[in-house]
Amino acid sequence: MKFVIDSPDQLGKVIRASRKAMDMRQDDAAGSIGVSENFLGKVERGGETVQWGKLFQVMKELGLSLSVEVPDEFSARVEASLQGKAARGKTSSSREAE
């Protein structure tokens, strides 16, 4: 099921509801994910200053994913830009290996 998220508060509520639906206590979830209970609480309260990497770690461990809907009128340009960066990233990775 998809939910429209337009604020950290809404994302936090979805994360909290998902954790509770899994019958996980906050401290147990934090421990199994590898973040502090304080951090997980901050995420679930919609804290606006959370670390992106840890946020995505929490979401991944709870089986959540995030997607962005790009308006059709410029989606092709965005996709091309992302593919170009991916190709450049592969090139730089192969250079580093040499």
UniProtKB/TrEMBL annotation:
- Residues covered by the HTH cro/C1-type domain: 15-70
Note the SMART domains from the entry. Answer: HTH_XRE (SM00530)
Database matches in InterPro entries: Cro/C1-type_HTH, Lambda_DNA-bd_dom_sf
Which superkingdom heads the taxonomic lineage of this protein's source? Bacteria
- Indicate what this protein is called per its UniProt record: Helix-turn-helix domain-containing protein
Native species: Pseudomonas schmalbachii
